[in-house]
Amino acid sequence: MKPKYLILVAGITATLSCGAFAQQDEKLGKLSFPTSCDPKVQAEFERGVAMIHSYWFIYARRAFEGVLQQDPSCAIAYWGIALDFLGNSLATTPTRTEAFFELNVSKDGTKICKTAALRSGTSDSS
Predict the structure, then answer these.
(1) How far is it, in rounded angstroms, from Cα 100 to Cα 95?
(2) Are residues 1 and 50 in the same domain?
(3) How far is CA 29 from the centre of its chain?
């Protein structure tokens, strides 16, 4: 195939894929997952959780990263990112690299929780 033809086919495929994703986005369903995060990120966080449950891991991670950009103290968003690194655990086990990233992301979320507990005086100092 000629390179110009490949570029054209790739462009059409990308355009159609984006349209299909946008249509499916409306079919994620509704859920309630209360958090202690800033209320302005609640809807995006819940959208990320719905995406995880729909096996849209990469898109879910982007949603959780967006939540953290708006509310860096939203520790539960790190949980969502960690789930993305684990991937579909029903299909396969995570690779060593994925498990390493999941562990480190989880630790980032734990640090935020401990810092918040210390600030509020609710830490059991363990």
Answers:
(1) 9
(2) no
(3) 17
